């Protein structure tokens, strides 16, 4: 499968170090340069806004999916190639999953983790076989990798899922990894 659209889960905050925003912008730029369309939460600030700006500043496409209730309260980007308004957070995640050929998590908070783990779980139970990657700016997600490794060691995640969502340090490595990812069989219960 050729990846044409990537859903990115990430924060509406910038983080405490400028490298987070700079690297997020570079990811967006890389997507645009490789004809990858961005699917994301439609925010104009933080890591979300930086990735979007990298895409759009370099002639790419950014598709935002925003729940109507948040559109009234949050800073919805006015630069989007396309805005899709939905009725709920559940519909937002479902629409993003439908539109995407692959999923990436960049630095963010609880919402980013929740979205990531949903597609991670969906892969385990066979609801999709789309590649998942983690854009590990400044080794932000090293503790997450350690947690997943611990969960495998303790028998709560099957060992075959060790590389279900690999960590990548550069946009080049991320896109290569997503394109080379092989589907993993669904979870079995013993």
TrEMBL record:
Q: Name one GO cellular component term.
A: cytosol
Keywords linked to the UniProt accession: Cytokinin biosynthesis, Hydrolase
* Protein known as: Cytokinin riboside 5'-monophosphate phosphoribohydrolase
Q: Which gene encodes it?
A: yvdD
One Pfam family cited in the UniProt record for this chain = Lysine_decarbox
Query: EC number(s) in its UniProt entry?
Result: 3.2.2.n1
**Entry's family note:** Belongs to the LOG family.
EC class, as a word, reads hydrolase
Q: GO biological process: what's one of them?
A: cytokinin biosynthetic process
In terms of domain of life, where is this protein from? Bacteria
Annotated GO molecular function terms are: hydrolase activity, hydrolyzing N-glycosyl compounds
